[in-house]
Amino acid sequence: MKYRKLGKNGPEISVIGFGTWAIGGGDWVFSWGEQNDQLSQNSIRAALDAGINFFDTAAVYGMGHSEEVLGKALKGSREKAVIATKFGLVWDDKNNITRNGTYGSIIREAEDSLRRLGTDYIDLYQMHWPDTDVKAPVEETMRAMEKLVQDGKIRYVGVSNFPIALLDEALAVRHIDSLQPPYSILAHQVESDLLPYCIDKGIGVLAYSPLASGLLSGNYTFDSRFDEQDWRSKSPSHTGEGFMQNIAIVEQLKDVAAQLDITVSQLAIAYVLANPALTSALIGVRKPEHILNALAAAEVKLNESVLTEIKKIAKSARIVMPINE
């Protein structure tokens, strides 16, 4: 496994990270369907054994369930792992989700996450989405994060899905160690502005959905359909005309991958890791083979001609991410 430093101040983390969105289980609005907790824990331990040290979760994944599963799997191995979780998506007793970046809410969420993870510190604490509901100022959110750092509850501060304007506001208060944007061959808009910005500011970049929520896994065909409990069954990227268009692109990418003697998923991971802004590509995992099959991508180097060909093929991609991932 290869490792890169997270921004200018952060820890060394594996270039392939373990994403835990799916292992939250089936009982929430952005579920991937029912999961087997024992299989999820086996996957986490397999990743550790393979040299992966970065594990990314969020409080909202399964309404805390993903954090609990991760905490159980890492019991006895905490010192080997860099744990990242997210806050800012809170839910009520009916599982209605709202965005909240207020000081008090963040402090409470951190304590809840620490308890579910079974640890006394979180390595990287990230704001999941900008607060568009309560509309707390970014300055208030950053003050709460700084308090958690000073108290030893968290070690590094990150944000997810932030545009440059909000990053500027956050940086006016304190340094941001990482940004987590959606980034893949099929969703490459961040290449023009966000990624260069992060290089300039010394912010690490963690790419989520580098396999475009499964589209770039190579496992789907034009006839594939998603279970109705899976959020992708309602996504315009994974249904209807958008799905057909994206699968057509993936079929062309398979030819590129075959020429390099790698899989299309390995090609997709290598593509995002080729960008100099990237620290780690977060791979969604439900089974040990998902993470083990991704490992070889860390060794793949794509030359400029291949990168240019990939961009040309993917020009017409249609990707829409769920608004509360």
UniProtKB/TrEMBL annotation:
<feature type="domain" description="NADP-dependent oxidoreductase">
    <location>
        <begin position="16"/>
        <end position="314"/>
    </location>
</feature>
<dbReference type="InterPro" id="IPR023210">
    <property type="entry name" value="NADP_OxRdtase_dom"/>
</dbReference>
<protein>
    <submittedName>
        <fullName>Aldo/keto reductase</fullName>
    </submittedName>
</protein>
<dbReference type="GO" id="GO:0005829">
    <property type="term" value="C:cytosol"/>
</dbReference>
<dbReference type="InterPro" id="IPR020471">
    <property type="entry name" value="AKR"/>
</dbReference>
<keyword id="KW-0560">Oxidoreductase</keyword>
<dbReference type="InterPro" id="IPR018170">
    <property type="entry name" value="Aldo/ket_reductase_CS"/>
</dbReference>
<dbReference type="InterPro" id="IPR050523">
    <property type="entry name" value="AKR_Detox_Biosynth"/>
</dbReference>
<dbReference type="GO" id="GO:0016491">
    <property type="term" value="F:oxidoreductase activity"/>
</dbReference>
<dbReference type="InterPro" id="IPR036812">
    <property type="entry name" value="NAD(P)_OxRdtase_dom_sf"/>
</dbReference>
<dbReference type="Pfam" id="PF00248">
    <property type="entry name" value="Aldo_ket_red"/>
</dbReference>
